[in-house]
Specification:
Length: 121
């Protein structure tokens, strides 16, 4: 059973930074590729970034490229998302997921409960 628990969300001013964490557990979790998705009110869930436990290779959505850094700590089974130069349009619930590594949410079978990020202008 894979369990994912996000933390680190909150309220931040535009231009500020936040680091989100995702603590992962479960015997098979490292066989997946980890991803961050976000969902704003009234919008579909969208891909933010992904990282492989094994290789560390990463992928980013164009909307966050250059402002986000995804990383993982294999010893702690924890994934991170550092978000810089935050914009009001980054406001969303951010979800941690374990799955295929693609940008398609339905290819991720395991999800955390989400953490709210609110960026004020």
């Amino acid at each position: 059973q894979v369990q994912l628990v996000e933390s680190g969300g909150g309220l931040v001013q535009a231009g500020g930074s936040l680091r989100l964490s995702c603590a992962a557990s479960g015997r098979t979790v490292t066989s997946y590729i980890m991803g961050w998705f976000r969902q704003a009110i009234g919008k579909e869930r969208e891909f933010v970034a992904s990282v492989s436990w094994r290789s560390g290779s990463t992928s980013y959505a164009d909307s966050v490229k250059g402002r986000a850094i995804i990383s993982r700590d294999n010893a702690k089974n924890t994934m991170y998302l550092q978000m810089n130069s935050l914009k009001p349009e980054d406001t969303a619930v951010y979800y941690c997921a374990a799955g295929s590594g693609s940008s398609v949410a339905k290819t991720y079978p395991h999800w955390g409960q989400g953490t709210q990020v609110t960026v004020s202008s």
